[in-house]
Amino acid sequence: MFKWLRDYLYFLYRCVALSFSGQGVFYAWMTFLTALSLIGLNAYCKQLVDGLYLTGMNDHVSWGMYIANFTYLVGMAAAAVMLVIPVYIYKNDRLRDVVIFGELFAIAAIIMCLLFVIVDLGRPDRFWHLIPGIGKFNWPYSMLSWDVVVLNIYLLLNMHVAGYLLYMRYLGRKPNKFLYMPFVSVSIVWAISIHTVTAFLFAGLSGKAFWNSAILGPRFIASAFASGPAFIVLTLQVIDHFTAYKIKKTTLLALRRIIQVAMIISVFLMGNELFTEFYADSLHIASIQYLFFGLHGHNMLVPWIWTAVVFNIISLFILVLPMSRSLKYLNVACILCVVGIWIEKGIGLLIPGFIPTPLGEIVEYFPTVNEILICLGIWAFGFLIYTILLRVSIPILVGSLHIPLKYAQREFRKGV
Amino acid sequence: MPRMTNHDDQNLQEGLNSLGNEKMSRRDFLRRGSILATGMGALMAAMSPLRQLQGAFDPEEFVQKHYKEMTPEEMDKVLRRIERKVAERFDVKATVRDIKPMDGVEYVYALNLSKCNGSRKCVHACVNENNQSRSPEIQYITVLKMPQGTMDMDKGEILYDPPKVPEEGYYYMPVQCQQCANPPCVKVCPVHATWQEPDGITVIDYDWCIGCRYCEAACPYWARKFNFAEPRIPKERINPDMSYLSNRPRSKGVMEKCTYCLHRTREGRYPACLEACPTGARIFGNVLDPNSQISFVLRNKRTFVLKEEVGTIPRFFYYFDE
Ligand code: SF4
């Protein structure tokens, strides 16, 4: 009667065992990530003791690196859907094999997002106030409470779909469509919604002209659907290099198509925003002016945003030209896209919203070392999770990790 | 289907055999043990700064309910606890009360820009009254030195410091919480830690705020201030007449703001900033009372509000003398 439970627990046990074993490179990589995570944790503990005072934030620029990374990572998580749609809806076979890597990446990205929200809180001990039912949840009015809900549901959706499919593969059984397709469909809508809600978080503030724009949502989505798959292109090649899992080039080229289109739309939308702001040239352009050209001698972000613009445009060029069919160029384009959008949709979107302040003061934001260490720690922890997820799922996918035959005779005989 | 290499298979077997398996060799066991020990050691070391937090955690405060959900008895217990804490922290005997709004009252402020001389007396009176942190400095009122001929706050100067005010060619515009009737900060708070009271004052439950600073980003008047560090106030500067929703000392990591001195105004006194103003530029009162001074000003002066276009509907008006 408890056979399924025994099988499942044994499965989990083997997964844990597996995540601690590997070759030298694997150990070195894991040790490196663990060390970085611990350094981040240490920095966070210091912040817990002394308060957010240890960051570069203040009453003028009250959100910084944490929320910038959060915003960016929500997009990365949502981007997994760009693999999901072609595979489950359009039955694209070239992407079928890798869609699970996208879903696993979404899991890691959401975990990073939630950590970035937590480290940003002044009173993380009161996190429970945010839990619907126990706390006091300002729903539906606060976009932040929406975000917490949709992010957690998205996390569960991906854990379910990826976990279920992997476990069925492990058991050598055919997955039951009814147990995952409904969740896949929901997760598609959900992916769009998490990033839209994150855009609303900013766009809904009438007091901040820089964010208060209807095209912010579409801009978020377009740039995420470029940078997310670009990131996945890069990780797939790492997987191909280090594991038994071989990635076909056609798969990467299918992703290239997606990045290409998303990138065109993203750059186009950015152009729209720039035109409206600068051509109209109203009092409201102070923030965007600060971002691109500096304001009254304050121009810390100027080199950053122009780097992002140049990266985006070069990346777009490479992507639309046939040369990006060669992996070498495709990789360059992907790296430029990932970095460019990280700047543009991270600090480039966040910080100017606070400059000048509502009363017209200009105070620039410099992250502190402690703050940067916390960010690095969270990224490292996210990569750690992603590595473990891959470490476990690849053997399942290639068939070297499956249920012991003595338990599985019947299912295997029925045919895998 | 991609092929599995021998190499990977070997790894896999090793992995599967290693944890808790009877086949695990002694050497393997020791190696894993030492990795685990190093890991735990590193984790402990990473978390060592937390030792300084010892005793900071207060289980009673942790489980405390939201202001609006506490029964009067529970509230009473909380108030006593806060008094004890103030005594511990500042060595001051304070009284903390929960003062409710009065019926039929809606507070409105008006400020005569022709009179204000930029002396910042209100700013300091406010800090003294409301137990704001002196280091780092938190102030609820920001006075802008504005060049004549503009209302654009970007042209204002905040850190002005001349030997004598007022200066020729400038006027001064104090800005504090505008107690909006449509407050963006209340709307965005994810946990309802801030809300508008029936008398129009937007308050914060400092024991409920999670410190996300979303409200600070939403406020178009830069009226909300955050405790980035543990607020420090010299013992002799503490105002011992405290209330739960206004001037009791805050902890680090929570938001605070002007409450129109509700612990004074709800008992019929004026806000501290008004009392301190040397020029009589400030007018405060109950707008629902047609005979109040504020009603007179609203009826007879050409008043305006700041940033009307963002739709906040402030309860704070400005005017110039004709
Ligand atoms: S900082 Fe506090 S009051 Fe402001 S939105 Fe966050 S929880 Fe609410």
Outline of this structure?
With 416 residues, chain A is an all-alpha fold. Chain A is built from 16 helices and no strands.
Give an account of the 3D structure.
The complex is a heterodimer of chains A (416) and B (322). Chain A starts with a helix and ends with a helix. Chain A has helices at residues 3-19, 24-50, 65-79, 81-89, 93-96, 99-120, 143-171, 177-203, 216-242, 249-280, 286-293, 302-320, 327-345, 347-350, 369-398, 405-413. The longest helix of chain A is centred in the middle third of the chain and has 32 residues, at 249-280. Chain A has one domain (39-415): Formate dehydrogenase/DMSO reductase domain (Formate dehydrogenase/DMSO reductase fold). Chain A has 416 residues and is mainly α. Chain A is built from 16 helices and no strands. Chain B has 322 residues and is of the alpha/beta class. Chain B folds into two domains: 1-57, no CATH class; 100-322, Alpha-Beta Plaits, CATH 3.30.70. Chain B has a three-stranded mixed β-sheet, with helices on one face. A two-stranded parallel sheet of chain B has the order 1-8. Chain B has a two-stranded antiparallel ribbon with strand order 3-4. The longest helix of chain B has 21 residues, at 26-46. Classes of the chains: A mainly alpha (416), B alpha/beta (322). The interface between A and B is large, with 76 and 80 residues. Bound molecules: iron/sulfur cluster.
Look at the structure and give the CATH class of chain A: Mainly Alpha
CATH architecture label name of chain A: Up-down Bundle
Of all chain pairs, the largest interface belongs to: A-B, 76 and 80 residues
- Secondary-structure-derived class of chain A: mainly alpha
- Main β-sheet description of chain B: 3 strands, mixed
Ends of chain A: how far apart? 23 Å
Per DSSP, the total helix count of chain B is: 10
Q: Structural class of the helix and strand makeup of chain B?
A: alpha/beta
| Domain tally of chain B | 2
Shape of chain A: globular
Across the major sheet of chain B, the strand order is 10-2-11
Please give the count of helices of chain A: 16
Radius of gyration of chain B: 28 Å
Low-pLDDT sequence parts of chain B: 1-11, 17-22
What about the largest sheet of chain A? none
How many domains of chain A? 1
Quantity of strands of chain A, as a count: 0
Distinct compounds present: iron/sulfur cluster
For the residues shown, what is the average pLDDT of chain B?
Answer: 91
What string gives the helices and strands of chain A in order?
HHHHHHHHHHHHHHHH
